[in-house]
Structure formats: C-alpha cells, structure tokens
C-alpha cells in the first residue's frame, strides 16, 4: 500500500467515524428538543395530543382558578384562540392574569394542556420572544408601548458602561 493510499484510507475512516458520531448526537437531541406553539397553533390542530411543547401567550383575565393540593387551572390566549391549562404546583410570584406566560408540558386528548413548568415574565418590560412574535402576528403587540398604552413592551437593554 502506498503512502497516498494509506492517507486516503485514514481520511475515509476518520470521516466515517465523525459521521456516525454526528448521527448519534442528532438522534439523541431529537428527544430533548421542545418546540414553542401558540394557542392558535393548538386550535388549528398543528400539535398532536401527547406531544411535548411550550405554550405561550397571555393569561386570560378571569380564568385563574386555584384548587386543592396546589392545583391551578387557567387559560392562555393569543387573542385569536384560547387553551385551558392545568398545572400542579406553586406558581411564580409574578404570575397573574393579563400577563405573559410560557408553560411547558403535554397536550391531553381532551384539549387541555397539562403543564409541568410555568414561567412568568420577570418585569414589566420583558416578554419572551416567541410570545411577542405570536402576539405580533395577532396584531396585539404594540412596539414601544408601555403598560398604560394597553400592550406589553419589548425588553430593552440599557447602555453598556465603559470600562
């Protein structure tokens, strides 16, 4: 075997090992990827029951019901559609009606979203990008509007200090 042929065989073997490793990594990540969906996506049957995903929107006013054993029922809306959410656990301190929320869980066959994680916005100017995009598509998002203008405002970063 010549030197050139040995190099080609070595390159081919390394390429094959790299391709197999990449395939294994991608197949392992497929089970951990969680997609974001809006209530309109759920209403349009884009998501099949039993699928794990993130649901985001606004907590519908008047929908919050607290039950026994830290069970909470509420509705998430993007002003186009509404999805009922059931959560077992303690809600974040900033969770309230009319505010942005992202929940992670599974859609049950009856159309109720069973959440195992609830994330609330952290101050009056923050809105998760996925939720803001869904609200923009519905015409609810007002760029630069504050609480008084009837809509959430995008997150802004202050000027960086010079060091």
UniProtKB/TrEMBL annotation:
Could you list this entry's UniProt keywords, alphabetically sorted.
Answer: Cell membrane, Cytochrome c-type biogenesis, Heme, Iron, Membrane, Metal-binding, Signal-anchor, Transmembrane, Transmembrane helix
Kindly give the InterPro entries that the UniProt entry links to this protein: CcmE (IPR004329), CcmE-like_sf (IPR036127), NA-bd_OB-fold (IPR012340)
Localization? Cell membrane; Membrane
What does the entry list as the binding residues for heme? 122, 126
Region feature Disordered, mapped onto this chain: 137-163
Q: How does it sit in the membrane?
A: Single-pass type II membrane protein
Q: Name one GO biological process term.
A: protein-heme linkage
**Which Pfam family, any one, appears in the UniProt record?**
CcmE
Q: Which residues lie on this side of the membrane: Cytoplasmic?
A: 1-7
Record family assignment: Belongs to the CcmE/CycJ family.
Q: What does this protein do?
A: Heme chaperone required for the biogenesis of c-type cytochromes. Transiently binds heme delivered by CcmC and transfers the heme to apo-cytochromes in a process facilitated by CcmF and CcmH.
Tell me the protein's name. Answer: Cytochrome c-type biogenesis protein CcmE
Source species, please? Methylobacterium oryzihabitans
Q: What gene does this protein come from?
A: ccmE
């Amino acid at each position: 075997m010549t030197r050139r042929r040995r190099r080609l065989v070595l390159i081919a073997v390394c390429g094959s090992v790299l391709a197999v490793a990449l395939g294994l990594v991608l197949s392992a990540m497929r089970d951990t990827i969680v997609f974001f969906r809006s209530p309109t996506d759920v209403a349009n049957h884009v998501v099949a029951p039993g699928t794990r995903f993130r649901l985001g929107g606004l907590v519908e006013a008047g929908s919050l019901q607290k039950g026994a054993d830290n069970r909470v029922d509420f509705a998430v809306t993007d002003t186009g559609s509404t999805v009922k959410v059931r959560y077992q656990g303690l809600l974040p301190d900033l969770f309230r009606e009319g505010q942005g929320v992202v929940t992670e869980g599974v859609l049950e066959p009856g159309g109720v979203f069973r959440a195992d994680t609830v994330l609330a916005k952290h101050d009056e100017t923050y809105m998760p990008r996925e939720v803001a995009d869904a609200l923009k598509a519905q015409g609810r998002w007002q760029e630069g509007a504050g609480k008084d203008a009837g809509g959430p405002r995008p997150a802004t970063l202050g000027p960086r200090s010079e060091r």
